[in-house]
Amino acid sequence: SRQICIFLLSTYTGGEPAESARWFYTWLQDTVSDFRVQKTLLSKLNYAVFGLGNSVYQEHFNSVAKDTDSWLHKLHGNRILPLGIGDNNVVQSENGGLEEDFVAWKGRILRVLNLEITPSHKPVDNEVNVAPSKIKVKENVIHEGKITSESSDNSEDEETIAMKKNSTIPIKNDVVDVEDLGVMLNNLGKAKADRELEVSTLQRVQAGPKTSISSLKKAELRDMVTPSLKEALSKQGYKIIGSHSGVKLCRWTKSMLRGRGGCYKHTFYGIESHRCMETTPSLACANKCVFCWRHHTNPVGTEWRWKMDDPEKIFNEALKNHYGLIKQFKGKLGHLRIRTIILFCKHNGKNLTDFLGVPGVQTERFKEAMEVKHCALSLVGEPIMYPEINKFIELLHGKEISSFLVTNAQFPNAIRDLTPVTQLYVSVDASTKESLKKIDRPLFKDFWPRFLKSLSALSEKGQRTVYRLTLVKAWNAEEIEAYANLVGYGNPDFIEVKGVTYCGESKASKLTMENIPWHQEVLSFTDKLVDNLPEYEIACEHEHSNCVLVAHKKFKVHGRWHTWIDYAKFHKLIAEFASNGGKNFDASDYMALTPDWAVIGHPAHGFDPVETRWHRKKNNKDIGGC
């Protein structure tokens, strides 16, 4: 039979199959184990399996594909090609990425089909042209964590099989013309070399990413951002910088440019949202949080294993791209008729928005936006992973740009070594080991000790520190007492309690609107939390962001809250810190009075009265934000 089944299988959290493959995976597992089923059940099945995984998850790397390939073979299925290993980890991937691995495997399977179907062994029209260096002849397969030779029911030896697979000369009844023997022996030698290379590659994949960056040759380091990843992030509005950084306009930057209100950091800390740049020097992260609104398109890792760009380059390109995005809000050809502008864009491949601008942008706000004053290092990924993060922060402060850095509490040493920032956040997404594993889906096996050490490291920082709690109904919204216990580890200055934002349906997340708490539910949770924290009180709220700020009572001076930041004072202090060899200062040295409209209980509910409240007419989702 010429019928062939090709299985493309991904591995989900904990080594589980994707939902769409769960029934088949379970059925196949049961069938293999059922003594009542004949082991020759699939003897007429021709099959090939390709796994989609990430070798960063060492324990479960491509486990679903490996199991399926093994079980099909145990039921006497005819494996026409060894298991294909697709690796989304560009550092470990044999061909430089998941898609590249698949292209190479696809080329090999088409070549196998061509040899079987075409008697003359000549290439067919639809054969994929893949460079020989990208195609590895795999004669060994990983099964159940071990490298095993591919079993074969026929009696042909390895050399004969290799000759048939690699020769373009027809072989009938194993009779070969003498003049063709030299060509075939040459092909055999190449096949053996390919097999040796494949064995070493599979061993490297099996071992996982344990090699430190210092032991990697410079030539082996790859870009973090692959072409497919760049395309995916670009569609989401990101501007990619170099090989591992990015910048994007926050929805609140757009809002405040039009005088429609700022973000919660404007309410809580006094930043000017239209002058805030949201960026990251590392698109990679050590978690795969279920509520991530970045659609899990960013790479993952536990250490830096990619090419590294210079911090000056990232800094300059971030500003350049940010200003480029801001400029799109001001039209370039506003004096021309709309029809003329449309025709111009159509014939020149330009974006219409670049020339029309955005309605309602205030001239004064636009001018101010062209001078960044704040930087939110919370865009995507884990900025603290970038080895030159301290230098990057110094460049920000050198231009009097305040720094708001968010970390996911998995790198305690990096937190300790971090230079002072304006405000340091730690994401506290759960209060127990079990719920943290379920919500953040961390890569580190010792994620819980790392989490607690990161919180403790926060208490050693002299500057403003924040716990960032994201509430997800039915996941972590009932662990109030456990959250209160975690406060003792880091003794943060502030605790932000925010309801998770619904980002639409996603194959990578099971969250629905039922998991999104109402603002009153967030307030209720926060009330119960501060009942367990005698040193803290609720200070502010930003109803529009579904966010509440809990502050340490030391920021309540003479009965009035001082959660805002004196940015001029901070830059003066940080300059003295840099020039005087590390002169210490703390959060109380640069605090400022919180305006009445931002304080909890005010009728404004955190909305700045100088702004104009805007109510959407359509139910369009804008998930951008920091």
Key terms:
19 helices; ten-stranded mixed beta sheet; 2 domains; 626 residues; TIM Barrel; alpha/beta; single chain
Secondary structure layout plus pairing:
Elements lengths: L3 E7 L11 H12 L12 E8 L9 H12 L3 E2 L4 E4 L10 H20 L22 E4 L2 E4 L8 H9 L11 H30 L19 H9 L3 E3 L3 E4 L2 H7 L6 H6 L6 E5 L30 H17 L10 H11 L3 H5 L6 H7 L4 E4 L11 H10 L3 E6 L4 H6 L5 E5 L5 H8 L6 H12 L5 E8 L8 H11 L3 E6 L19 H13 L4 E7 L4 E6 L3 E2 L2 E2 L2 E2 L1 H13 L11 E2 L34
Parallel strand pairs: 1-2, 2-3, 2-4, 9-10, 10-11, 11-12, 12-13, 13-14
Antiparallel strand pairs: 5-6, 7-8, 8-9, 14-16, 15-16, 17-18, 19-20
Helix pairs in contact: 1-2, 4-5, 9-13, 16-17, 17-18
Tally of domains: 2
Instruction: For the largest sheet, list the strands in their spatial order.
Output: 7-8-9-10-11-12-13-14-16-15
In CATH terms, the superfamily of the largest domain is Aldolase class I
**Uncertain spans:** 117-185, 197-219
In CATH terms, what is the architecture of the largest domain? Alpha-Beta Barrel
Strand content: 5-15%
Note the overall shape. Answer: globular
CATH class of the largest domain: Alpha Beta
The mean pLDDT is 80
| Main structural class | alpha/beta
Strand count, sense and closure of the main sheet? 10 strands, mixed
Q: Give the helix tally.
A: 19
Care to count the β-strands? 20
Ends apart, CA distance between termini: 56 Å
CATH topology of the largest domain: TIM Barrel
- Bin the helical content: 25-40%
The radius of gyration is 29 Å
